[in-house]
Amino acid sequence: MDNFINLVKLSVGTETIDDLETWQATKRAQAPDGLPRHVTRMWPKREAEILAGGSIYWVIKGVLTCRQRILRLDEVIGDDGIRRCAIVSDPELVRVQSALKRPFQGWRYLKPADTPPDLPKGRESEEPLPVELNRALAEIGVL
Questions:
Q1: Where are the beta strands (DSSP E) in the chain?
Q2: Residue 85: how many CA atoms within 13 Å on its side-chain side?
Q3: Range of the domain at 133
Q4: Can you tell me the distance from the alpha carbon of 41 to that of 122, in angstroms, rounded to the nearest whole number?
Q5: How far, in Å, CA of 31 to CA of 135, rounded?
Q6: Is 1 contained in some domain?
Q7: Residue 30: inside a domain, yes or no?
Q8: According to the 3-state scheme, what is the secondary structure of 71-84?
Q9: How confident is the model at residue 103 (pLDDT cuts 50, 70, 90)?
Q10: Number of other residues whose CB lies within 10 A of the CB of residue 103
Q11: CB of 31 within 8 A of CB of 74?
Q12: Is position 57 within any domain?
């Protein structure tokens, strides 16, 4: 039985995994130690489960495409004085078998049983199926 939980998040404004990687390399997207982070308003209630081995799965243009192992959750106080959560992750983007995901606000929990598998070594550089083809295959039950 898995003792951890994952997060899933839309990567808004990102067209490709390379775009996400480029954004995360900017100082604005990094924690003080240089690791990539995503700052969000809500603090996950299931923090212990996330930190027990969870990853953040990224949805790009409606398709779940990659993940990063979550290393820690940092407190960030904004200029407005509001406490926020910085999800600090491993810089390695691990490509996963693509899966369609409907739009949603914020982040969602994702059980390990519901996560797509990582792409096998040697296939991580493969381009994902076009969104339209992926959607059509999902509609007929192939994916």
A1: 6-10, 37-40, 55-60, 63-77, 83-89, 94-100, 107-110
A2: 16
A3: 6-139
A4: 37
A5: 36
A6: no
A7: yes
A8: EEEEEEECCCCCEE
A9: confident
A10: 8
A11: yes
A12: yes
Residue 64 structure tokens: 């779940």
The amino acid sitting at 89 is: S
Do residues 55 and 95 lie in contact, with contact meaning Cβ atoms separated by under 8 Å? no
Of 126, 7, 23, 124, the C-alpha closest to 59 is 7
| Domains identified in the chain, total number | 1
User: Six-digit token pair at 131?
Assistant: 């969104």
- For residue 10, give the nearest of 47, 55, 62, 54 by alpha carbon: 62
Its pTM stands at 0.84
Sign of torsion, CA 17 128 66 123?
A: negative
**pLDDT tens sequence across 77-100:** 988 999 999 999 999 999 999 988
pLDDT at 137: 64
21 burial type by CB count under 10 A (0-12 exposed, 13-18 middle, 19+ buried) = middle
49 is a domain residue: yes
Q: Are 71 and 101 in contact (CB under 8 A)?
A: no
Residues 64 and 56: beta-carbon distance below 8 Å: no
pLDDT at 142 over 80: no
